[in-house]
């Protein structure tokens, strides 16, 4: 656990051009003097069903827009504000915290490029979703997900595109995106900084192969899929190191780079950890990344099992919950969607459209 109530420093790791950074590097949460509670599983009556963003009804989209707007309307120093939520990612990913609780005060915590990637982001979205629901007083509120593993879901969802809706700012819009990509719409799940300039049809097939690559070919066992072992005392694992999990290194990072603006000093927003949380698209991208964990297990192939090492099970993070309490959560409590009371709406006819897309 990071010691988020007393020790947090300015972020900066991984931000090349700090001077011209378009977002702040002061990412510490408003937490001084708070006590940390233990997490308890939700007792909601209903399961929150996350919905494919491209299939959203007007009612779903309006609600989601209103929730994000309510978040944006909070003062920045409120733990539920849009900015505070974005800073969570920055603090955990760009050197805000050290491993002081484990006796390594000089080593930063980094939740990317290792087996902490899936559980950390699952918890991050879990609280984010509940906070949004609370803001609009909807106990069943569920996030959309950017279903880039199905052809119809590959374009960046329409609701994110317009700058204004009925003359008012669109809460899902973000100015720091690659305008050409947003116009072209279909994401490239294998984007490496260069446009492929291939017809849409071909891009779709290419994307399906990429999903197959990340979930099957490159993700055949626990650590290939989750990422390598990373425990107290280890230095943050460098980006691109071999131990990065298959989805994280593959489609996950490609989408970040594809959405981020190459004309900004640090590819803000989506192209850098420190700023990614400022783009609402981050959270719908990550809900699909989280869904990949679920689908990977549902493939039921040999080797597709969650880590069982104590070091993984007992790794923990601290978040503000929907009641503004600070809670400590563990990897071991992140593995069951049933217990967390959310799930993903699947298209029963075509669960794995990429199943036969062996590259
Ligand atoms: Cu924490 Cu998609 O990165």
UniProtKB/TrEMBL annotation:
Disulfide bonds join 8-28, 27-90. Binds 2 copper ions per subunit. The keyword Lipid biosynthesis does not apply. Cu cation B binds at residues 252, 256, 286. One of its GO terms (molecular function) is metal ion binding. Keywords: Copper, Disulfide bond, Metal-binding, Oxidoreductase, Thioether bond. Cu cation A binds at residues 89, 112, 121. The keyword Disulfide bond applies. Residues 112-129, 279-290 form the Tyrosinase copper-binding domain. GO terms for biological process: pigment biosynthetic process. Its cofactor is Cu(2+). This is Tyrosinase copper-binding domain-containing protein. It comes from Mikania micrantha. The chain holds residues 79 to 437 of 595 of the full protein.
């Amino acid at each position: 656990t990071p010691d988020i109530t007393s020790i947090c420093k300015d972020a900066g790791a991984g931000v090349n051009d700090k001077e011209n950074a378009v977002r702040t590097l002061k990412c510490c949460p408003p937490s001084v003097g708070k006590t940390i509670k233990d997490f308890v599983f939700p007792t909601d009556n209903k399961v929150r069903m996350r919905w494919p963003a491209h299939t959203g009804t007007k009612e779903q989209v309006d609600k989601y827009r209103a929730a994000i707007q309510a978040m944006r309307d909070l003062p920045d120093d409120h733990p539920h504000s849009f900015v505070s939520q974005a800073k969570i990612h920055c603090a955990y990913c760009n050197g805000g915290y050290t491993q002081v609780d484990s006796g390594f005060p000089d080593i930063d915590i980094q939740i990317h490029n290792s087996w902490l990637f899936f559980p950390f982001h699952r918890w991050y979205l879990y609280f984010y979703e509940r906070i949004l629901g609370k803001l609009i007083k909807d106990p069943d509120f569920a996030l959309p997900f950017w279903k880039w593993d199905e052809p119809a879901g590959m374009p960046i969802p329409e609701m994110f595109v317009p700058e204004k809706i009925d003359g008012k700012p669109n809460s899902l819009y973000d100015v720091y995106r690659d305008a050409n990509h947003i116009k072209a719409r279909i994401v490239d799940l294998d984007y490496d900084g260069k446009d492929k300039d291939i017809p849409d049809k071909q891009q779709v097939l290419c994307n399906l192969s990429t999903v197959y690559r990340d979930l099957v070919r490159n993700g055949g066992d626990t650590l290939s899929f989750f990422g390598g072992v990373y425990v107290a005392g280890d230095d943050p694992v460098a980006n691109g190191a071999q131990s990065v999990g298959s989805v994280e290194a593959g489609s996950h990072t490609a989408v970040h780079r594809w959405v981020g603006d190459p004309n900004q000093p640090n590819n803000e927003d989506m192209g850098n950890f420190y700023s990614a949380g400022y783009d609402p698209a981050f959270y719908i991208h990550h809900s699909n990344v989280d869904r990949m964990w679920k689908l990977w297990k549902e493939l039921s192939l040999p080797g597709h099992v969650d880590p069982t090492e104590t070091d993984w099970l007992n790794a923990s993070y601290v978040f503000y919950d929907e009641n503004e309490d600070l809670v400590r959560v563990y990897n071991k409590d992140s593995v069951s969607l049933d217990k967390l009371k959310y799930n993903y709406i699947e298209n029963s006819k075509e669960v794995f459209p990429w199943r036969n897309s062996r590259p």
